[in-house]
Task: inverse folding
């Protein structure tokens, strides 16, 4: 079971990232809890400088850009 | 390259649409097609280039560098330059502001970044290049960066720390100069390319309508405002036109993509270029959405001081442009 967090203040890129993550999970049939973190104070606890970011099991893996499905897939399969 | 676009526009207007060569409508349509094609070509090139720079730019390293070194004022210029190459959006401005504060970077340096970030952006540069040529574009970019550096420096001298929100103060207490070292993302250019092109597509898609509308309004105005219309009122170089233009522009929030084509026509019809650039800076550099965004980190009083200072500097640069251009 993976714990995935999507950090983003609700900008268009953040929504896109969420869609990519959701699609990847559906494609690969991975069991995961996905949480969207929109509160900027919560987001800043991860010490990132730009959103959107993808956090897998409390480790920031992608930040500041929208990832591709392949990329997210590779991350989840680790 | 632009000759090719002109020929294409001529061919479409007079050939394909079969509009009479000398007609007023034909000239307007020709102008519209030519400008639109040209702007989109430039937008594509510049947004793409900026996307590449952004993808490779080591933000964390810059932050760590700025927090460790005292550069006798040069740090303002660096932060301002950095602001120029990052796109300004809700995705990056508040996190970057907090990130800088967390890293123990002085408030004034952070302000330098914050001023330039919306002021000099890839969309504005592409449009300036298309509408005014490289010389004006260069002056716009350089003065924007300089304005950010000087503005941030002045704001830093004002001791405004007390006017940040409580949240920022909390972060301050926990600030550490040794920010975590991130694992760098090792991606080849080919691996980065899909994300960069997606970004380019998104940006251009997001502003395409504004560009077309702006050029259409500009093209329409070209025909309807008499030549040198503004010159008869403004040619005396009335000093108050610059402050007036800026004060009108600040509360206005327009996309750079929509406003530049309109400004270009105003310049052609006799509005001094310095006044026009100052107007442009006021519209894109300061806006209400930005103020709302900043409320998380600044008290209203600080936002007012920030906006006031930047407005003043924009007005001053407007005067300067009118003098030298």
Result:
């Amino acid at each position: 079971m993976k714990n995935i967090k999507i950090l983003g203040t609700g900008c268009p890129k953040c929504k896109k990232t969420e869609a990519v993550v959701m699609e990847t999970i559906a494609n690969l049939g991975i069991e995961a809890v996905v949480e969207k973190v929109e509160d900027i104070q919560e987001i800043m606890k991860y010490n990132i400088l730009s959103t959107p970011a993808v956090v897998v099991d409390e480790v920031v893996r992608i930040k500041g850009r929208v990832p591709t499905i392949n990329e997210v897939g590779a991350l989840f399969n680790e | 390259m632009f000759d090719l676009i002109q020929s294409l526009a001529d061919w479409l207007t007079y050939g394909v649409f079969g509009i009479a060569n000398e007609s007023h409508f034909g000239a307007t349509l020709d102008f519209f097609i030519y400008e639109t094609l040209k702007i989109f070509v430039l937008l594509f090139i510049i947004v793409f280039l900026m996307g590449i720079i952004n993808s490779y730019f080591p933000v964390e390293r810059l932050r760590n560098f700025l927090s460790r070194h005292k550069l006798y004022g040069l740090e303002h210029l660096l932060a301002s330059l950095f602001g120029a190459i990052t796109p300004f959006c809700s995705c990056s401005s508040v996190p970057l502001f907090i990130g800088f504060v967390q890293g123990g970077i002085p408030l004034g340096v952070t302000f330098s970044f914050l001023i330039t970030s919306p002021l000099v952006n890839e969309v504005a540069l592409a449009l300036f290049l298309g509408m005014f040529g490289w010389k004006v574009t260069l002056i716009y970019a350089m003065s924007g960066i300089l304005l950010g550096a000087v503005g941030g420096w002045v704001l830093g001298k004002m001791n405004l720390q007390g006017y940040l929100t409580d949240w920022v103060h909390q972060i301050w207490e926990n600030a550490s100069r040794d920010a975590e070292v991130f694992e760098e993302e090792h991606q080849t250019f080919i691996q980065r390319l899909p994300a960069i092109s997606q970004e380019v597509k998104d940006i251009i898609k997001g502003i395409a309508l504004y560009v077309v509308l702006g050029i259409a309004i500009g093209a329409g105005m070209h025909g309807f405002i008499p030549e040198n219309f503004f010159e008869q009122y403004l040619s005396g170089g009335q000093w108050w036109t610059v402050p007036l233009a800026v004060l009108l522009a600040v509360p206005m929030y327009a996309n750079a993509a929509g406003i530049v084509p309109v400004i270009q026509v105003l310049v052609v019809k006799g509005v001094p270029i310095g006044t026009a650039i100052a107007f442009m800076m006021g519209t894109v550099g300061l806006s209400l959405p930005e103020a709302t965004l900043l409320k998380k980190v600044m008290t209203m009083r600080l936002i007012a001081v920030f906006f006031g200072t930047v407005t003043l500097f924009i007005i001053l640069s407007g005067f300067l442009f009118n003098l030298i251009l």
Remarks:
- Residues 57-173+218-324 of chain B form one domain.
